[in-house]
Amino acid sequence: MIPIKYGPIVDYALCSGCKLCYDACPMDVYGWNKEKKTPILLYPGECRLCGWCEMSCPNLAIHLELPLHARIDLGIHPELENLYEDPETS
Fold first, then answer.
1. Domains of the chain by start residue, with CATH
2. Which of 1, 15, 53, 54 could form a disulfide with 61 if both were Cys (CB 3.0 to 4.6 A apart)?
3. Measured between alpha carbons, how far is 34 from 86 in angstroms, rounded to an integer?
């Protein structure tokens, strides 16, 4: 199996368990961990990069990682994508 290196990334430290990402995803990428009350990425390969999960999260706990071809199409050079990050927060 080829690992998926794009799609939603959940920061569980910021996740409040509101379940909005789970409810918002039209592709059913997420599962739900009832014990921890957190989303689980069950089918990351099914993600269509629509961004509904990321936009629905009130705590900004989800980041949508774009695949390389999408970043290039948007003019984001792979070697320069971290150029604008604040070095104090990295």
1. 7-65 (3.30.70.20)
2. 15
3. 36
Tokens of 61: 């706990």
Outline where the chain has alpha helix (H): 20-24, 52-56, 68-73
Q: What whole-number distance in Å separates Cα of residue 41 and Cα of residue 9?
A: 8
Q: Tell me: the pLDDT tens digits for 43-81? A: 988 999 999 999 999 999 999 988 877 778 878 776 655
How would you classify the pairing of strands 7-10 and 62-65?
Answer: antiparallel
Type of residue numbered 14: L
pLDDT in tens, 1-32: 567 678 899 999 999 999 999 999 999 999 99
Q: Do 27 and 49 form a contact (C-beta atoms < 8 A)? A: no
For tokens 């990402």, the residue is 21
Strand partners, 32: 39
